[in-house]
Amino acid sequence: MTRPPHNPLLDGKAAPPLLVVLSGPSGVGKDSVLNRMRDLNFPFHFVVTATNRTIRPGEIDGFDYHFVTTERFETMIESHELLEWALVYGQYKGIPKFEVRQAMATGRDVMLRINVDGAATVRQIAPEAVFIFLAPSSTDELRQRLSVRRTENTNEIEARLAVAATELKQVEHFDYVVINREGHLDEAVNQIRAIIAAEKQRVFPRMVSL
Amino acid sequence: MTRPPHNPLLDGKAAPPLLVVLSGPSGVGKDSVLNRMRDLNFPFHFVVTATNRTIRPGEIDGFDYHFVTTERFETMIESHELLEWALVYGQYKGIPKFEVRQAMATGRDVMLRINVDGAATVRQIAPEAVFIFLAPSSTDELRQRLSVRRTENTNEIEARLAVAATELKQVEHFDYVVINREGHLDEAVNQIRAIIAAEKQRVFPRMVSL
After folding, report:
1. Interface membership of A78 toward B (CB under 8 Å)
2. How far apart are CA B134 and CA A203, in angstroms?
3. Distance of alpha carbon B25 from its chain centroid, rounded?
4. What is the distance between the alpha carbons of residues B178 and A200, in angstroms, rounded to a whole number?
5. Which residues in chain A touch residue B201, judged by CB atoms under 8 angstroms apart?
6. B177: nearest CB among A3, A194, A201
7. CB distance from B184 to chain A under 8 Å?
């Protein structure tokens, strides 16, 4: 996906790096898509989110999340070290600014995985980012996925589905919509790949500054 | 590239067909790119341009061009049967409207290959089309290509290069720029494929009406 700058308007200068925001309702499979892109060595800097929640079996600190204490997270909020943060279901999640800035400063594209509210915050700060909305192919599929995860009880699942219904309406604020259809993960991944490749060919590249 | 409509905003309706305009300076290789896409069975209706020029060895009437008499071409102009037409180097070239309308009415994406002036005309009629500018990687490469073609003499080649320099400046009116680098035809084709795929994922699809 990286290639020499060819756009005649760029005068031989490299195209600016992209900031790609991957969002969508809880349970839609943002993590699965992201992990698949990592496995396929997508040439992105994948920003690692900070959280105060408990590490789950199989998760790796600094890879899946930066797992920090509640106290440390609140210090990060107070000292404006986060691009965006939220308290979701009693858990803090936030994006350390330094990671995004560092990566973009070295010309690398950056991929953020955030919830729909977080995307709205980033849109205010960086409207020139590429906003991709990951959607389920149906509510049933979303319920199924939340149930399989088994870390939530039934009430929590229904609460999340209600939130998801609201979040789905936010699609109109995004640039692209990609469906993560059960059993077709690579279809979603390939669509995201095409979106990134197309954005690289824009005559007027998006200029993101944070 | 075709798939069921998934965009939540489309309410189960199929996304409208795309009108894709492939343009660029004379000699940049629009025909090579187009023929390669045809060979690869890109799911497009490739509009066949009408012309009054003499058929070249190896060309097929109704496939490479609709070869018509000068008299017939001028009748098509007078009766507004052409979406766009031009008199280029003493030869008429134009796009029959019925082909574009017919294809789009049946939901098929349409690909037009036209020169830079023609693209400007189509932009006025159909601003929601996808405008792709095919560019050479250098002027030398363009000169080389025009020379190899051997159907033009040296003066004609220099005249075309002068025109090409002007045409290159028109890139700023296009959505995307794709470089047709010598020996890397499939790179250009793949970038066009990605652009089309990405356009299919837009939250608000382009609505073209002619």
Report:
1. no
2. 11
3. 11
4. 10
5. 176-178, 191, 194-195
6. A201
7. no
| B100 domain-assigned | yes
Full pLDDT tens readout for chain B, 210 residues? 445 456 777 777 778 999 999 999 988 999 999 999 999 999 899 888 899 999 999 999 988 899 999 999 999 999 989 999 989 778 998 999 888 998 899 899 999 988 898 899 999 989 999 999 999 988 788 888 877 665 667 788 888 888 888 999 999 999 999 999 989 999 999 999 999 999 999 999 998 887
Residue B114 within a domain: yes
Residue B127 to residue B210: CA distance in whole angstroms: 10
Residue appearing with tokens 């899946």? A64
> Are B201 and A137 within 8 A, CB to CB?
no
Q: Please list every residue in chain A whose beta carbon sits closer than 8 Å to the beta carbon of residue B135.
A: 6, 8
Instruction: Provide the residue range defining the domain that includes A92.
Output: 16-200
| Residue B104 counted as domain residue | yes
Strand ranges in B55-192 using DSSP code E only, listed in sequence order: 66-67, 82-88, 91-96, 109-113, 130-135, 176-179
Check which CATH number belongs to the domain holding B134 and give it: 3.40.50.300
Phi, psi of B174, rounded to the nearest 5 degrees: -105, 160
- Do the Cβ atoms of B203 and A176 come within 8 Å? yes
A92 within some domain: yes
Domain total in chain B: 1
Which residue of the set B38, B56, B72, B202 is catalytic? B56
The C-alpha atoms of residue A202 and residue B4 are separated, in whole angstroms, by 26
List, by residue number, the catalytic residues of A.
Answer: 56, 149, 160
